[in-house]
Structure formats: C-alpha cells, structure tokens
Amino acid sequence: DTGVSQDPRHKITKRGQNVTFRCDPISEHNRLYWYRQTLGQGPEFLTYFQNEAQLEKSRLLSDRFSAERPKGSFSTLEIQRTEQGDSAMYLCASSLGRGGDGHDTFGSGTRLTVV
Amino acid sequence: GESVGLHLPTLSVQEGDNSIINCAYSNSASDYFIWYKQESGKGPQFIIDIRSNMDKRQGQRVTVLLNKTVKHLSLQIAATQPGDSAVYFCAENSARMDSSYKLIFGSGTRLLVRP
Lengths: 115, 115
Hints:
The complex is a heterodimer. By secondary structure, chain A is mostly beta strands. Chain A has strands spanning about 5, 10-15, 20-25, 30-35, 45-50, 55, 65-70, 75-80, 90-95, 105, 110-115. In chain A, strands 2, 4, 5, 6, 9, 10 and 11 form a 7-stranded mixed sheet that branches. In chain A, strands 1-3-8-7 form a 4-stranded antiparallel sheet, with no helix packed on it. In chain A, strand 4 (about 30-35) and strand 5 (about 45-50) form a beta hairpin. Chain A starts with a strand and ends with a strand. In chain B, strands 2, 4, 5, 9, 10 and 11 form a 6-stranded mixed sheet that branches. A 5-stranded antiparallel sheet of chain B has the order 1-3-8-7-6, with no helix packed on it. In chain B, strand 7 (about 60-65) and strand 8 (about 70-75) form a beta hairpin. The interface between A and B is medium-sized, with 29 and 26 residues.
C-alpha cells in the first residue's frame, strides 16, 4: 500500500486525557498536512510540514495541540487534556510540492470521540 | 474571510443521468482548484484538478469547468453510477498567496444516485 496511512482509525477517550495520532505519508512526499473535519463540513487546515519543519499552524491549533515530524517522514498529532469539542475526524494529507503542483493525497483519517 | 462554498447541499440524480455539482469561490487570487470525493468513513479522494490558466479539463467520466469571471467551478459526472454516491468537495489554494499551498474546502454536496 503506497497511500497515506493513519493510525488509529478510531479513538474514544475520556475528557481530560491525552491522545496521539500517527500519520505515515507517501514516502517521497515532502509536504505533510493535518486537517480536522467535523460532520457535514469540509476539512479545515490545522498545520503543515515541509520535510521536518513545521512551517504553518492554524489558529484552530490551540496550545493543547502539538504536531511533530521528527525525521521528515511520519508525523504525530497530540492533543492534551482533550475536550468534547475536539471530537472530529483528523485527516492527514501529503503531497510532493513543486511550486504548488500536485494534489494532496489524504489518509482515511482518525475519528476521535471525546466522552 | 475568503471561502469556498457550494450552491446545493444535496443532489439526487437517476442512475445513468449526468450530474453537475457547483461551487463558488471568493478568493480571486486562487489559482489551483481540486474536486474531492468522500465516502462515509473515508478520507477525501482526488477526482480532478484544474489550474486557473485553463477553463476546462476532462478525466474519465468527469469534467471540471472553471469560470474565473464569476468565480465558479463545476464538476460534471457523466452517466452517474451508484458508486458515485458520496459527498463532493471543491477546494482551492493559491500558490502566489500561500506558500504552504494548504487547501481551503467548501462544506460539500451530497450526491445521491437513485437506481
């Protein structure tokens, strides 16, 4: 499988707990994005990596959220002290950016439910 | 702020008919547009893209039309099949305005194919 992989597919957690999601992009893709999607809405941008550098973060990404891409390959998204409002689908996408050419390939997402 | 939106939230078509899904965008600086298909429980799947220097692009059973004068984008699906039932999103970005090339999504149109 050469697509974008996300793990886990589903996560149910109690409010206040920390969660971490993993994304494995397509191997040659240097750009990696995290998006959040709530029911009936389009994905919303959270953060962007080019190789290992986190170059942009959305205002949606509160200080409880942190993302890393330590070796420029896989990425993790951690949410600390989860709140019910964090319940959403978290999508990872990757692309081989060449001046904006090339579409983003999305993973199947991690669905987070905070109870 | 700038946004991408859709005219129709739900479109119901007869199997075999052609479908047209519309999208209006507001950022005149956007120069790259993508249509994604999302089935329940899955991540967005790339369908077709178009750059602002084109007004039409065709794929297999799908055509994207871009009208920059009125900032309108449409996706045409020929001979719609039951497997086309999904939510369709248009997305945009601007290489000139945004070095991250992050996508801005609309809220989606649900396509229902009647047998």
